């Protein structure tokens, strides 16, 4: 009897790559924490479809998109996912290195002891007291020329709108209309230097940024970062929020600096928490996206308000490493949940 050869075993299909849209919160120099988060996430074989941000989160979002595009273009015909991820990592690293160099003469500096011991709360440093005094008595309209911003020159060198549009990612950057108090969203077709400066315009520090005859302040007041527009633009993708303003506070602050820092956190978290609760109520797969969260509560809880203005390179590297650590824990614990269920957990969401 003729014996037929055994059939070849069927090859198992590889599991689909996790599909994510990233929402990046703002927080000044603390945005280097998000740099670290992204640097670690981009080591994974993920499919990225969109990104949104406010303030420093917007700048991280744009640098990620530019690097994604640059890496795809350099990856040959059809682009390369690995090349896109590596391109994004390189673009983010270059951006934060340039930010540190541009701010090397800033008034808020850590002492040598702070650098050696890793103490980064500079609320009581001389430069912080100087900035606090100036905020009370001087407005930027008395000291700055129209169109001035310390990052304008740097962003003019780095931002490439055409490259952003080639990334193939949905992009949203938030700003607050001063006159109407309404949220303004700029997408990948609109984002440029002025839009990024508007999204990061703190009114006590900088003159409002004028775009199309309208004045804008920091986008973090109303969407920090935008969630619903990103979810609607990226149907089927899981939404990963990177929050850098601590959501919770273990001890009620009693000193002026601590009170100011906590009020700042509450103010810039309000819109985010409201949107996350709303999306959570809709439920992943039932009209709402599956939600995930990487927060900085464990790492940045002891930092004060004025460290957000400090661009010391050793501090930015410390923040980056903290972000990488937080993202590493999230990858180990929650990346397998992407595409299946939400994993966002925080007492602030209850």
Automatic annotation (TrEMBL):
Query: What are the entry keywords?
Result: Hydrolase, Lipid degradation, Lipid metabolism
Q: Where is this motif: GXSXG?
A: 53-57
Domain annotation PNPLA: ranges: 22-231
Positions of short motif GXGXXG: 26-31
**Any one GO BP annotation for this protein:** lipid catabolic process
Is Hydrolase included in the keywords of this UniProt record?
yes
- Residue numbers annotated as active site: 55 (nucleophile), 218 (proton acceptor)
Q: Where is this motif: DGA/G?
A: 218-220
One annotated GO molecular function: hydrolase activity
Query: Could you tell me what this protein is called?
Result: Patatin
Species name:
Azospirillum thiophilum
């Amino acid at each position: 009897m003729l014996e037929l050869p055994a059939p070849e075993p069927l090859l198992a299909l590889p599991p689909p790559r996790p599909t994510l849209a990233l929402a990046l919160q703002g927080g000044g120099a603390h945005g280097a924490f998000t740099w670290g988060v992204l640097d670690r996430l981009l080591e994974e074989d993920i499919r990225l479809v969109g990104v949104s941000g406010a303030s420093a989160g917007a700048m991280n979002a744009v640098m990620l998109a530019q690097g994604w595009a640059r890496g795809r273009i350099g990856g040959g015909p059809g682009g390369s996912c690995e090349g896109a991820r590596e391109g994004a990592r390189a673009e983010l690293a270059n951006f934060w290195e340039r930010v540190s160099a541009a701010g090397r003469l800033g008034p808020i500096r850590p002492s040598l002891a702070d650098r050696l011991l890793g103490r980064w709360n500079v609320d009581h440093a001389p430069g912080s007291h100087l900035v606090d005094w100036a905020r009370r008595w001087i407005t930027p309209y008395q000291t700055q020329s129209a169109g001035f911003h310390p990052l304008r020159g740097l962003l003019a060198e780095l931002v490439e709108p055409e490259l952003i549009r080639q990334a193939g990612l949905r992009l949203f950057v938030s700003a607050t209309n001063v006159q109407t108090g309404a949220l303004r969203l700029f997408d990948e077709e609109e984002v440029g230097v002025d839009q990024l400066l508007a999204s990061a315009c703190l009114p006590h520090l900088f003159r409002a940024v004028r775009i199309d005859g309208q004045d804008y302040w920091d986008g973090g007041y109303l969407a920090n970062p935008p969630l619903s527009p990103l979810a609607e633009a990226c149907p089927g993708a899981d939404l990963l929020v990177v929050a850098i303003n601590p959501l919770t506070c273990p001890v009620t602050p009693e000193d002026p600096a601590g009170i100011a820092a906590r009020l700042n956190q509450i103010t810039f978290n309000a819109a985010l928490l409201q949107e996350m609760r709303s999306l959570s109520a809709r439920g992943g797969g039932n009209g709402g996206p599956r939600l995930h969260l990487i927060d900085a509560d464990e790492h940045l809880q002891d930092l004060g308000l004025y460290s957000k203005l400090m661009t010391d390179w050793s501090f930015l590297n410390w923040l980056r490493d903290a972000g990488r650590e937080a993202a590493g824990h999230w990858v180990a614990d929650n990346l397998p949940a992407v595409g299946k269920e939400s994993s966002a957990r925080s007492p602030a969401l209850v």
